[in-house]
Structures
1.
Amino acid sequence: MRVTAMVLGIIWGLFLMFYALYVFFAGELTSAVGMGDKSLSMLGSVLTPILVFVGAGLAMRKPVIAAALFLFAAIMVFATLGLNGASAFFGGPVLIAAALAFFGAKELSDLTTQPTTQGN
């Protein structure tokens, strides 16, 4: 499960980079014509792929921390885009990666608590 969370994090981190470019340049266009300030959504769109990449890097050794980062990134996607198809496309797999990393933590704890046999 931890490997799958890592792979999903890497793949969707790349997709979220395109999402960040879209939100960043759309925010620049709306600010240029005076339709409002989108600085918070632009900041969130830049931080989201960074959080996903860091979560993917931590998924093997610290899966609970990775799950928290994935969850926070998915919340940022839903907060930036609202609840629609685009947010489900970009945020849904990150939520799945969060669940996989979280449940992979039990797998890691099972591996570390197994009794070892010592030969005489």
2.
Amino acid sequence: MKTRITTALLLIAMLASVSCGGEASVDTTADTASDTTTAEVTTSIPELDIPDDVDYGGATFTVEAIDARGKPTQAINNPFSLEEANGDILNDIVFEAVERVEERLNIQFAQQYSRDAFDYGRLRTNAMSGDGSIDAFSYIDRFGVNQTADGCVIPYGDIPNINLENPWWYEDINNAISIANKLCYAVGAMNLDVVSRMTTLLYNKRIHEELQLESPHKLIEQGKWTMDKLYEMIEAAARDIDGDNQMTVDDIWGAVYTHDAWYNNFHSLSGYHIVKKDGDDLPYMNVAGNEPLFDTWQRLLAYTLEGNVFVVSYAGDTKKYDIEKSTYTEPLYMFMDGKALFTSTLNLGHLGYLRDMKDDFGILPFPHVEEEEPGAVYGGFNPAVGQPLFVPSSNSDPARTGYVFEALCYEYYTTVVDPYIESVALVKQTRDEQSTEMLKMMLSDIQVDFSCGYWYDDTNHWWYDVFRSGKDTFVSSYEKQAPKAEAALEKTIAIFESFH
């Protein structure tokens, strides 16, 4: 399912998501893109529907989250921890939005932290004990879902005072992540992760110009920006510059990347989804017999084995660029050093690492597997929706929680999202107008991977392992994985069907 928006303010209001619908059988066709001709959109923002006499007398509203203090993602993932305006654009617009919600409802936000990034049992423990001290938990989507069995969360459809039809809630995404027409979490403008975690393709302009390669921007305009075109450029760029007859981090590579910031962009953006939903809003595996999906993986593996790309599978693979002991920053440091034509990143915030890059770089959408019509939109890809807010069944005042979420989404929609896109994602961290236009296009059509958002380990990890092995065992590996993947889906379906 795709939605295209032409005005900046509406850019995020109707973000696109994965395809829905169809029967519970393998769908081997790509989701077709809609007509790219759009009429000018004129709309008015509805008023926030909270009665004037709603006043909580200074009550504390507590959110528990993974600790992001001091990190670039603090304002996104720990917004209630911000202590003051400090001149940083994102910090200040979020701080002021949160402050307005506090004033409107007469509440005080409190932020507390999980012991570590995987301390997800806290939600379940809190709910089962009846402890009402925590109003919401901010967890990575797929891990939080695993804690929602046995009535441990309140589905968003059961939370009073939330209207998911308001434009500050992302209707397309919420329709796509629902199961059995229920939501254990929902996303709206307050969930900046939906924007910030978009995967981007970066290219070194100096290397591109020296090799006199085709303009990717012209290819995009013509609808000819394909996986094959990308790998033609990758092959042209890779070279052994020190003459030792072996490719190392000291040579020039066509691309450097991690598995999960690269491979799934191609099939997802081309509509070859691993998980789809049937007419009853129930997910099913869409892998067995899906020839376009297997063909895409097999072609990518063949390209990988040509030896023109450096794949960072584990932290420390580059040694020289293992500066932060992180798999995701190694490719960026190697790219910043001019050692690759292309790289990719899973987070717009990571572009900040490249501010001191000597060479100029540009931002591109990932190509599609096949050609499109001229003028087609090349959208962005988000592996999941980040860290949404789960409401435990022990929540002491669901009606208040509904007002809080509604007010937060309204404030973010009217005062945060647009400035974040324009001032942070599109200006602060990019260097040219072409990159800005590419980002705008990508943000106008974001695809969210349903399988990553719920069952990453069971539905996706196995095919990453095939790429790591270097052997074309996609079909046989899936045959082994299928029972586990299908069981994971059935378990989640049972959880959602248990919601009243």
